[in-house]
Design brief:
- By secondary structure, this protein is of the alpha/beta class.
- Helix content is 18%, strand content 18%.
- It is built from six helices and twelve strands.
- The strands form three sheets. A six-stranded mixed sheet has the order 3-2-4-8-9-12, covered by helices on one side. A three-stranded antiparallel sheet has the order 1-10-11.
- Helix 2 packs parallel to helix 5 and helix 5 packs across helix 6.
- The longest helix is centred in the C-terminal third of the chain and has 13 residues.
- It is globular, with a radius of gyration of 20 Å.
């Protein structure tokens, strides 16, 4: 691919991948890349300055090693599902995304979420997305909820910009709606963000590894919180920074389908959220693209976490 071609030209074409199963031979998949010109400035969601906490400004963090998951409600799930876009946005439709929604609705109750607490919003604008996040401040159910899950299924471009029905916005500016001083009912509680979208135009070529007999070495990390205004976040993005993400037109995206498979097969008593996502990435890593443009290309999900405790979705006793 000629790097001199601008982003709109590169991404506006439907990029077809093979059926993303280990033994599939079809040609049903696409990448979730937006058809934007790279030089166009982003129109991001309007987010005000982060308010200062009252009093000492210090949030009392419990010393427990596990997040408490014994509330009256497991929590709320918001799914922002984008299949079609306004013509001015310049994005192709996203066939297959409804299969992701169907699987999520099927497996999320296994984590303890009630069906009535799973809300799906289809093809809405960035203003509507921001409004829904704003309205969470007045949601009484969050006071008695264990956690909050936000799923965004859409096109994306580099620098973590996502596409709503009417334009683009920035993921991490959107996440500012969920910090402890903005959404006080969720302070100290885990907030999970699952993002199925491209993060750029690069593709993962994969590498051939040699087997080594040396034992694994682990670098110990100090217990630090580099962003104290944004603790208790767990963000899953479908690809590495700057890379494309694949979606099957009939079966759904690699990330969401393998995540749902991992949830379905996990042991909720012993598997933490990290175990579930490790199994998810293991499955994604075994997939291969067979499309003409992306033959043998790979994908791997990326995880960003500021969780301060271990997170398990054990069934309520």
């Amino acid at each position: 691919m000629d790097p001199s071609v601008n982003l709109r030209q590169e991404q506006q074409v439907d990029l077809v991948d093979a059926n993303p199963t280990l033994s599939g031979s079809g040609s049903n998949s696409e990448v979730d890349a937006a058809g934007f010109n790279e030089s166009k400035p982003a129109q991001t969601l309007s987010v005000g300055p982060i308010p200062k906490p009252e009093g000492s400004g210090i949030l009392a963090i419990p010393t427990a090693k596990l997040y408490s998951m014994n509330g009256a409600k497991r929590g709320k799930v918001l799914i922002f599902n984008h299949e079609t876009f306004e013509e001015k946005v310049g994005c192709k439709d996203r066939p297959g995304t409804d299969q992701d929604v169907a699987r999520l609705n099927q497996v999320l109750p296994q984590l303890g979420f009630q069906t009535e607490d799973i809300e799906v919003y289809n093809n809405i604008s960035k203003g509507e997305i921001n409004g829904i996040a704003e309205n969470l401040k007045n949601n009484a159910d969050l006071e008695i909820s264990d956690c909050l899950v936000v799923v965004i299924l859409t096109h994306g471009i580099k620098n973590d910009k996502l596409v709503a029905n009417d334009g683009e916005y920035h993921l991490y500016e959107f996440i500012e709606n969920f910090n402890p001083t903005t959404l006080k009912s969720m302070a100290g509680k885990p907030k999970l963000f699952i993002i199925q979208a491209c993060r750029g135009i690069k593709v993962d070529d994969g590498v051939n590894l040699m087997a080594y007999s040396a034992r694994d070495q682990v670098d110990s990390q100090p217990d630090i919180r580099p962003y104290p205004e944004f603790p208790d976040l767990f963000v899953v993005q479908s690809s590495h920074h700057g890379h494309k993400a694949f979606r099957d037109k009939q079966e759904g995206s690699w990330l969401i389908q393998d995540l749902c498979n991992a949830i379905h097969s996990c042991d909720l008593e012993t598997d933490s959220i990290y175990d579930i996502l490790t199994e998810t990435n293991n499955a994604i890593s075994k997939r291969l693209s067979e499309a003409k443009e992306y033959r043998d290309k790979k994908q791997i999900a990326s995880i960003y976490s500021t969780l301060t405790k271990k997170l398990y979705f054990k069934p309520s006793k």
